[in-house]
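Worked example

This section walks through a single chain of length 343. The input is the sequence exactly as stored; nothing has been trimmed or padded.
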Amino acid sequence: MTGAQTSAGPVTTGRAPLLESRGLHVEFASRGRRARAVDGVDLAIGQGEIVALVGESGCGKTTLARTLLGLERPTSGSVVYGGTPLSHRPRALKAYRRQVQLVLQDPMGSLNPRQTVYEAVAEGPRIHGLAGEREIVASALARAGLRPPETFFRRYPHELSGGQRQRVVIAGALALDPKVLVADEPVASLDASVRGEILALLLKLRDELGLSALVVTHDLGLAWNIADRLAVMYLGRIVESGPVEQVLTAPRHPYTQALLSVLPESPERVVLAGEPPDPTRIPAGCRFHPRCQVLASGRAAEAGVDGRCRSEPPAVLPARPGPQAACHYAAEARDAQITRDPG
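Given that input, the structure is written out below as tokens.
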């Protein structure tokens, strides 16, 4: 995979794209330099599709999610919803946030301990001036699996279990009847016994309401169980994407292979050298090359791509549903396979 660091633009088939990032860059000032938190991302979420965004802490996942929610302004590029670029004018953002809602990982942190469940779920409908508040709250709680909903109206967060609190957070999002949920580590703070229940709820909401979702996580097992498609992020950029089963059973990018190697069933553990680089000093060439096990082992040199790994940045991956990897070695291996087996 070669070429300059320019985006080919979103190209999707199958499900129509509902929420997209196009050539997205987000930078922050850091110690007199610019940190490239999101550094050229094309990503599309189709109608009724769940996309998992995975990667190490600090890779830019949360910044990308916040930008898709309109909470951060892109330095360049755009967020597109329903074919229309997102405007950051207050009135436009308010209307947009009825359609795209956030579900946070820590329900105790996102719920006001002094508010009842009713007040927490009613907050969004009140901000947006929706009529029939009581019916909206009851319906949202019921859809989130808290039944009968009226029995939860007067309860406070500390009176609920962790799973029930997360359902209240989800109900607060559902009260606005959104089309997309952005869930940031939605089960990370929950006991293993209730994680499956929340994941099953998200799948049920997708099936019954046609909701789309972006699930931000470092947990590949969660991605396997919930996502239709997977995007792997490293140092501000998507380095591999595709249908979740294809990416997790036949990963092409060395970084994805390293992430998968920590799973118990993995035959071989890959230990990456060092920490992720400083986003104010992204390496030349492939941004993963200083830690790449394929380059370090000499396999990239054997394939004749080691020089390109160190000097030539792979192109930005377009937002298309098929499997793809931003890796010179993977591209060379793919081309060699096609040459051997052209049929």
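What to look for: The radius of gyration is 21 Å.
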